[in-house]
Specification:
This protein is of the alpha/beta class. About 40% of the residues lie in helices and about 15% in strands. It contains eight helices and ten strands. The strands form two sheets. The protein has an eight-stranded parallel barrel, surrounded by five helices.
């Protein structure tokens, strides 16, 4: 199992932002991700910086840790421009970028460009076209595609990614169409658990729900002749019942991680603590988990 973190882009780079990424690398995290939103929930009225410039700066500041988004969506992105940004990020980081990608939701990003919020079906339709086109853009030198939602006309993407054939995709999905995309195009799959259980469910019910999601991912892989074991399985924490219980102590984390490891989860992602927010946890406990958690899990 790998242990990673999410760093929300809320601090000016020279007033805590840079230090947060350097600290994550020093703590030994496998990867540090950030959200790819224009604003998000309770942080909407405060500072919030762009994901791509933030990751570019983090790539220049760090040397070992993988970097990426959890997650990018079609809400305000186009595959042609996104591909160019990702190729650049992969180059600056010398091949350390992972693209977390999902269909998006009904948050502020859904309407910020002046459009009506898409229905779940409309989001799935766009996602189903977005991912394959982005795959082509990152693997082919020149792409022309006339799609229903996204088109490209001789889009040049030289020299391509440092990582070959392209940067890895971590596809966030729980529905049948999204799981098929993960099976076909993903190097990893991402879940936050079952959102229906967040407020009134139990941790045990959440574990069973994730087990069911992994089983459905296995079916989607089997349908195209792929071994589901080829995909990493990433759990972004903070959105399951009792969302901070696993960060109350080292033992609580080891118990939480162990139960999810048994399900087949291969990477757990923790939010870097933010005081006075939904991600407010004891920094000392967080650092103890970062440095000792996996070793305790394997004892």
């Amino acid at each position: 199992m790998r242990l990673s973190t999410v760093i929300l882009p809320i601090d000016r780079w020279h007033e805590g932002g840079r230090e947060a990424w350097l600290r994550a690398e020093a703590l030994g995290f496998h990867a540090a991700y950030t959200y790819d939103h224009l604003s998000w929930r309770t942080f909407r009225d405060g500072p919030w910086f762009g994901a791509v410039p933030t990751l570019t700066a983090a790539a220049a500041a760090t040397t070992r840790m993988r970097l990426g988004t959890l997650v990018t969506s079609p809400n305000f992105r186009h595959p042609v421009t996104l591909a160019k940004d990702l190729i650049t990020l992969d180059d600056v980081s010398n091949g350390r970028i992972t693209l977390g990608i999902g269909a998006g939701g009904n948050g502020f990003d859904a309407t910020v460009l002046g459009q009506e919020a898409w229905t779940p079906r409309q989001r799935a339709d766009r996602f189903g076209e977005f991912v394959p086109l982005l795959d082509r853009l990152l693997t082919e030198d020149s792409v022309t595609s006339d799609g229903t939602f996204y088109s490209a006309v001789e889009a040049r993407n030289l020299p391509g990614c440092v990582q070959r054939p392209r940067i890895p995709f971590a596809v966030a999905a729980t529905g049948p169409r999204g799981l098929k995309l993960a099976a076909k195009h993903g190097q990893a799959w991402v879940t936050t658990g079952d959102p229906k259980l967040f407020e009134s469910g139990t941790p045990e019910e959440s574990v069973q729900a994730i087990r069911g999601q992994i089983e459905k991912l296995g079916v989607a892989c089997e349908e195209i002749g792929r071994d589901v074991a080829e995909l990493d399985k990433i759990l972004l924490t903070g959105f399951t019942p009792q969302p901070r219980r696993h960060l109350e102590s080292l033992d609580a984390f080891v118990d939480f991680a162990g139960r999810h490891f048994e399900l087949g989860i291969t990477e757990i992602v923790l939010h870097t603590p933010i005081p006075d927010s939904d991600f407010a946890v004891d920094p000392k406990v967080f650092e103890q988990i970062a440095t000792e958690g996996l070793a305790q899990l394997g004892r």
